[in-house]
Please model this.
Amino acid sequence: DIQMTQSPSSLSASVGDRVTITCRASQGISNSLAWFQQKPGKAPKSLIYAASTLQSGVPSKFSGSGSGTDFTLTISSLQPEDFATYYCQQYNSYPYTFGQGTKLEIK
Amino acid sequence: VQLVESGGGLVQPGGSLRLSCAASGFTFSTSWMDWVRQAPGKGLVWVSRINSDGSSTNYADSVKGRFTISRDNAKNTLYLQMSSLRAEDTAFYYCTRGYAIASWGQGTLVTVSS
Model:
């Protein structure tokens, strides 16, 4: 199975900051990487697929990059509604696997 | 796009349950569909995938042989038949749409306990 490792596991930031979350795959997955946002008590929301393509309706403050084994999610100009847990997922080979999550908290 | 899960509840270990996901607002018959679960307070875990016409399915090792994913394209409905349930299957179960997941349902809670 492909292991997905996110770093950091938690992150404190202030409104207006720019933050970057990293996701590393244990083997190459081309660009078959998605990012999701989840707020407490809610279903996840899809943000990015194919490593860098925004889902419809997702604001351009979110951006993704990477290919192979190393990927990043960057969120610019943090707003209160952006504080949530973020997950990456590889869908290159079965079984599909998620990272452990990165909790983004307000400083 | 709307995905509405149902069928969750309390079941004893060893029991069975069938989850349903009613889909609307998109062309269900051409969409790949997944089930993803999340134990309370834990991370997301991929469970199963079915292709658009139901001819191909895949499962996580932890559920293989116990869970069966299926779909009825005439009814725009996705299913997950779960049997030999264990305490560790306790989780919210989400129905998702897309080869790369684009949409999520609100989830249904399955609790396996005596």
Remarks:
- The first strand of chain A starts at residue 4 and ends at 7.
- Chain A is about 0% helix and 50% strand.
- The two ends of chain A are 36 Å apart (CA to CA).
- Residues 42 and 84 of chain A are 10 Å apart (CA to CA).
